[in-house]
Design goal:
Elements: H1 13-27, H2 32-39, H3 43-50, H4 58-68, H5 73-83, H6 90-97, E1 102-107, H7 118-131, H8 136-152, E2 160-166, H9 168-171, H10 177-191, E3 196-201, E4 215-219, E5 225-230, E6 235-238, H11 241-257, H12 261-273
Parallel strand pairs: 1-2, 2-3
Antiparallel strand pairs: 1-4, 4-5, 5-6
């Protein structure tokens, strides 16, 4: 059993489903082969679901409920897993974010979630609903989680937050002029906080800009570093310093190339007033 994978339900909806499935199976004293006999699914398929490598289908969850005598509990959780707007990997990242002593953000196109006003955040998720990318229920799920993340920043001691924004973040009008202007005002307020540094990476940096996709770097209480990035369908938390180290170096290089905080706030104010 030395190669038995430890399951962490905080890693995401699929991980939570897999952990529950394993727990219910083992409470009955069943092996994966035993559950296979009762459901008609192979032991390797069951293993894949338990470890989060496979998404539980409706047919699979119905067979599991029948085999384990759990009513429709696993069917309902499976449906929530398939319909969640939260990417796999993101819940685990949120746990680390809520404990981090330092948070380094780089974003393009939109203001990072941690710094968004409620109206700006709602405009973004409402746009996703209108495009059919998420449902209204999923929108509520995202906004609820965002509010919890923002509230966690008020802990004592507060984390040190370094914010690098591509110039596109302050140029793109989101939610209409009023919402957009209030968001720019909020960035100015955040820059005045004692535990934050806000910098703009201007367009003129060109090829000197280190990143071409958003990235978040966290320093944990034990001073280790983790990085988080997303694709269209999943989030990935990286702990291996062979990969995190170069990202941290690139971040520091971009900080040196970006505008100072004073220059950045001045640019934000000019954009806010329509003079730049």
């Amino acid at each position: 059993m030395s190669n038995r994978k430890q399951l962490n339900p905080d890693e995401g909806p699929r991980a939570a489903f897999g952990e529950r499935l394993r727990r219910l199976r083992e409470e009955r004293g069943w092996t994966q082969d035993d559950l296979s006999d009762h459901t008609g699914y192979s032991a390797s398929h069951i293993s894949g679901v338990e470890t989060g490598a496979r998404t539980p289908t409706a047919r699979f969850t119905e067979s599991v409920d029948k085999a384990l005598g759990t009513g429709d509990a696993m069917t309902r959780q499976g449906a929530a897993t398939r319909n969640s707007a939260i990417l796999d990997g993101f819940p685990e990242f949120v746990v680390h974010e809520g404990r981090a002593t330092e948070i380094r953000l780089f974003e393009m196109g939109v203001v990072p979630g941690l710094l968004q006003t409620p109206e700006y955040a709602a405009a973004i998720t409402t746009g996703a609903v209108r495009r059919g990318a998420i449902t209204q229920q999923q929108e509520e799920e995202r906004l609820t989680l965002l509010a919890k993340r923002q509230a966690s920043l008020e802990r004592t001691p507060a984390p040190q937050i370094y914010v690098l924004l591509d110039e596109s973040c302050i140029r793109q009008l989101v939610g209409g002029p009023k919402v957009w202007a209030e968001q720019l005002d909020r960035l100015g307020e955040i820059a005045e906080m004692p535990n934050t540094v806000v910098q703009i990476a201007p367009y003129e940096l060109g090829e000197r800009r280190s990143f071409y996709t958003p990235v978040t770097l966290l320093t944990t209480p034990d001073r280790s570093q983790v990085a988080y990035a997303e694709s269209a369908h999943s989030g990935h938390l990286e702990r291996d310093m062979r990969f995190v180290g170069p990202l941290l170096t690139a971040y520091h290089q971009l900080q040196a190339e970006a505008l100072s905080q004073a220059e950045s706030v001045a640019m934000i104010n000019r954009v806010r007033k329509g003079t730049s």
